[in-house]
C-alpha cells in the first residue's frame, strides 16, 4: 500500500503525469480498450481566485458507470458539472486543462456549450421536472432540437427506458409535478434521455429519495449503462459499491482544493484500496 | 446545589393571572385597524352621499357629456375617454419596453458594477415624484417633439404617463423573473436548451402571473395621476372635440378623469360639489375594475401553472 499521497495514482501504479497514450480506454492495468467517453487531463476549476479542484486526470469508460465519491467539499459536484459545462452558468468560474470528448476539447473557444449539453445530459439531486405535463416534459428537449419524427413514439420509448412508462401511460397529460419524488426523478431521467445523449451525468440523484426509490434508480442505471455512459456523484458509499463499475475517490487537500486520491475498478477500490486515505474513507473512518 | 433552573421563574401550569400587557397590545393593534377603517369609511360615505344622487339622476347622460360651464350639463364623458386612451398608451408604450428591459437585466446582463448601477437608478426613478415626470413630459413630448405629437395632445400625455410607470413595470417584472426557481433554469440548460429557449419557454411562463399583476397595478397607478398630466397639457376647463376624427383627437386636446375632478373641485358653483363627488365615484370604480382584472388574471394564471 502506497504511503505517499502527493499525486493521484493512475491505474497500474504509474508515476504521476500522464504518459502519452498509455491511459486511454479502460485504462486499468494498462489494457488497451475502446475509446473512453470522456477524457480529463490535468483539469482544474476555479471559482474566482479559489481553486475548487486541481490536477484532475482520469478517463470515463464508455457504457459503464463511474462513481465519484469522497467527503463533502472534495469538489465532486464541481467536477461533474465541469464535464458538461454547467459551471459556465455561474459567473466567475474558470476551467484549466483539457476535457476531451471524441478527441475534441470541450472547452475550446469554438465549442458551443449548448451543443455539449445536448450530448452530455444531467440529472440533478432535487428532481426538477418542468411545470408542464409528463408528455411535455419528455417532449421538451426533442421539440427544441427540431425533432421531426414521431414524438409520441419517442416519448414512450424514453419513458420505457426510464422505467416509468407503465406507471404514467394513462396520465401523460397530468402535470409532472403531481408525481412522487421517485417518479419525478425517473421523469427527469426520461427527459434527459429523450434528447439521445451519449453521457448522462447524475449529481446525487437518489439522495432525496426513500430506499425503495433509490434501489429503483440504481436498477435503472444498470439498464441504462448498455446504451449510455453514466457518471454519478454519490455520498452513499454503499450505493457506489453496489451500482458502479469504476470509482474515483476524491478528497480535499490542505489548500482546500479537491484532488483524486485513487481511481480504479469499484471492486478494487472497496476490497483492495491502495491508499490509506481510501481505505479509511471506504471503511467509514472519516467522511 | 444551585442550578440554572433555580433562577428562572416558573409560574404554575394553570394560569394564575391575566396577561395585561398582551391584552393591551392586542387592543392597540385593534384600535389602529379601526382608525384606518374609520377614515376609509368616512371618505367613502361622504363621497357616495354627495355623488350618488347625481349619478342616479343623470346616469348615462352624466357619463357621456363633456365638461361645460353649466353644472347641469357637465359630464365625465371626455374624462372617461381620455382615461381609457391613457390606459391604451401606457399598455402599448410602457409594457413591452418595461418587460423586455426586465428580461435583459435579469437573464442576460452580466453581474457587473454597471448593471448594479443601472438597477439602483431604476429604483430611484420609481421614487421620483410624479410631477417631475410632468415637467419631463412637457419639455420633451410637448415642446421638443411638438411637431410629432401635436404639442399638448393625448399622445404626449400618454407618453408622459408611460415613462412615469416604466420603472415600476421594470421592477415588478424583474422581481417576478427573479422569483423563478433556479432548478427550473438548470433543468432546461441541463438538456441542452439555449439561453433564449430557457427564457422564453421556461422562465417567462413561470413569471407571467407576477409580470401581469405588476403591469395592471402600474396601470391603476397611471390612471390616477393628476399633476403630471396638468403640466403636460391636459385641458382644465371645457373644450370641444368638434367633428374631429379619432386619429385627430389623439394629436389634440384631451382630459382625464382625475384632471376633471381637479377642475370641478375648484369651481365656485355649489352644484359642482356634487358633480365632483360623482366623478370621484366613477374614478374609484375604474380603479377598482382595473385591480379586479389584475386579481382575476393572476388567479387564472396561477391555477394553470
Keywords:
heterodimer; A: 287 residues; alpha/beta; Rossmann fold; four-stranded antiparallel beta sheet; 10 helices; B: 305 residues; mainly alpha; MetI-like fold; 75% helix; 0% strand
What does this structure look like?
- The complex is a heterodimer of chains A (about 290) and B (about 300).
- Chain A contains ten helices and ten strands.
- Chain A has about 290 residues and is an alpha/beta fold.
- Chain A has one domain: Rossmann fold, CATH 3.40.50.
- In chain A, strands 6-7-8-3-9-10 form a six-stranded mixed beta sheet, sandwiched between helices. A four-stranded antiparallel beta sheet of chain A has the order 2-1-4-5, with helices on one face.
- The longest helix of chain A is centred in the C-terminal third of the chain and has 14 residues, at about 210-225.
- Residues about 1-30 of chain A have low confidence and may be disordered.
- Chain B has about 300 residues and is mainly α.
- In chain B, about 75% of the residues lie in helices and about 0% in strands.
- Chain B has a domain at about 80-250: MetI-like (MetI-like fold, Orthogonal Bundle), CATH 1.10.3720.10.
- Chain B contains twelve helices and no strands.
- At the A-B interface, α2, β6, α3 and α6 of A face α7 and α8 of B.
List the helices and strands and how they pair.
The complex is a heterodimer of chains A (287) and B (305).
Chain A: E1 38-47, E2 50-60, E3 65-69, H1 76-83, E4 93-101, E5 104-105, H2 113-119, E6 120-123, H3 134-144, H4 151-161, H5 165-168, H6 181-193, E7 199-203, H7 211-224, E8 229-233, H8 237-243, E9 246-252, E10 258-265, H9 266-271, H10 276-282
Parallel strand pairs in A: 3-8, 3-9, 6-7, 7-8
Antiparallel strand pairs in A: 1-2, 1-4, 4-5, 9-10
Helix pairs in contact in A: 3-4, 3-6, 4-6, 6-7
Chain B: H1 20-64, H2 77-108, H3 113-127, H4 130-144, H5 146-149, H6 154-178, H7 182-190, H8 195-223, H9 227-232, H10 246-250, H11 257-265, H12 271-304
Helix pairs in contact in B: 1-12, 2-6, 2-8, 2-11, 3-6, 4-6, 6-8, 7-8, 8-12, 11-12
